[in-house]
Request: fold
Amino acid sequence: MEPFLSALSGLAWTIVYIDAIRIGFRHRTYAIPLAALALNFAWETTYTVHDLMGPMSLQGYVNLVWALADLVIVYTFFAFGRAEFQRFVTRPVFALWGTLVFGASYAVQWLFLAEFGEHDATRYSAFLQNLLMSVLFIAMLMARRGLRGQSLTIAVAKWLGTLAPTILIGVLRGEPFILGIGILCSVFDLVYIGLVLRLKAHPDALSDVDAPAPAPVRLPAQRVPPP
Reply:
C-alpha cells in the first residue's frame, strides 16, 4: 500500500505541474497562486540540494523533476503575471514584489528546518503550504471570475496528490497533525473542484458578481386634477 500511495502522490503532482505549464502558456498567465508557487519552489529546491549532497534517493529525483517543472511555472509568473495586477503596479514593482515573496518563502523553509529538523520540517511545511494552496486556488478563481489559468485536471490531481500522503502518513503511520491538515486540504480541494465544475457548466456564473445594481427608475409625478 505504501509504495502505491507514494507513486500516486508523485504522479498526481507531476500532472499538476505539467498541466500548469500547459495552461500557463496557453492562457498567458500563471496557473499556481504566487504564495503557494513560491513556497513549493523553495521547498523543492531546498530539499533537492540537500539530497544532492548525499546519497540520492528516489524522492530526491522526484523533487528534482518537480523543481525543474516549477522553474518553468515561475517563468510564466514573471513573464505574464503583471497583467493580473492593478495598473499602478509597474513592472519594476511587480518584479520586486515577486522577488520578495520568493525570498520570504526560502526563509520560511529554512526556519522550519531550524525549528523541527529535516524529518519533521519536510512534512509539516509541505502539508501546511498545501493547505494554503488549497485556499488560494479558490481565491484565485474568485479574483479572476473564471477559469483563466486553471483546469479540472489541476484541481483533481492536486487533491489526489495531497490525499495519498495524507492516508500514508496520517492514517497508516498514525500522525494526527498530518491527518488533520490533510483532511482540511481535502475539504478545500473538493470545494474547488466543485467550483471548477460549476464554472465549466456555467462559464458566466461569476461575471455579474459585485456588479452595480441598476439605478431605480423614477417615474414623473402625476398631477391630480382639482375636484
The chain has a mean pLDDT of 89.
